[in-house]
Amino acid sequence: MRTNKRRRQTQEIKQIRYIKQDIRRTQASGGSLLNKLKAYRDHHAHALFSSLGRLVASPFNSMMTIAVLSIAISLASGFYLVVANLQQLSGNLKTSAQISLFLKNEITEAHAIQLAETIKQNPAIQAVNLITKDQALAEFKTFSGFGSAITVLKSNPLPNVLQVLPKHTFEDQKELEALLQNFQQSIEVDSAQLDMQWVARLQSIMSVSECSAQLLNLMLGLSVLFIAGNTIRLELQSRHEEIVIAQLVGATCNFIQRPFLYTGFWIGFISGIVAWFTVTLMFLILRTSVENLSSLYGGNFHLLFFSFFETLVLILISSSLGILGSWSVLTYQLQLTRPK
């Protein structure tokens, strides 16, 4: 206890000396803009590295805080990646939501090709694929199991088929319904088919996933704010005497807040990096199993990881949350310690 008290007193004396040196340096500058900028730079450099030194000086408390924050950030960012991979998977399934146009028997192959080119010019259409009568018959013989019975027929009863893939398949169901009705009214089309119920279900799943990700990110972001703020509150209590002495010698609120804000920055910054490594490691462990499962279903699905830009955004958001949580606590607590 005595050793800790002596250390605290030594830190307070050093802080007072540093404040006095800064005041003298600023006064001696004679109002020079260059000297003021240098003093401002020195203030921030000292606050930046001294706050990091305090975190290193108490490794257990720092590690516990960073561990809790990194878990919260990992959950939020991990769920974001899960939704991004689901969106990639839904993109691969868009061909299952295509519209099949069964043309009338009198429509020749040349006419079907001309109709396909006309449909492609529609801005709401992404792609059009023509399946001719001969291609349809060959496919039917291969997969139906009635190949020998088909050979008895004198003519090919199957029509030419156009497979139409609309754009924005999962975004606007009404637009799909209007497009389907438009095709059904075409004189070349005998019937048009689209499983609207399947599309509606997939739309609902993606909407729920995106909404859940946003709500989870909001809740976990608030938890990061509260944890960072509570950490700074405890730091303020442990350095209460130092803050009071600094206020008595004329230190401004900005000067007192600066090291605590940088402490919040370091906590958020390190937690964001740890969260990135955690999520990346988890997805690396899952990648082989997911890709093996995809190959069993004949797919070519690959897990998405954080891009360079997404990594920067993750670290920026976590650092900003640490600073914001620190600032919210400092604004209130320093008003209570201000000398009357």
Your description of this structure?
By secondary structure, the chain is of the alpha+beta class. It has two domains: 2-91 and 203-337, no CATH class; 99-193, Alpha-Beta Plaits, CATH 3.30.70.3040. Helices cover 74% and strands 7% of the residues. It is built from eleven helices and four strands. The chain has helices spanning 2-28, 33-57, 59-92, 109-120, 133-144, 147-150, 173-184, 196-238, 240-248, 253-296, 308-337; strands at residues 99-103, 125-131, 161-166, 189-193. A four-stranded antiparallel beta sheet has the order 2-3-1-4. Helix 8 runs antiparallel to helix 10 (253-296). The chain starts with a helix and ends with a helix. The model has no long low-confidence stretch (mean pLDDT 78).
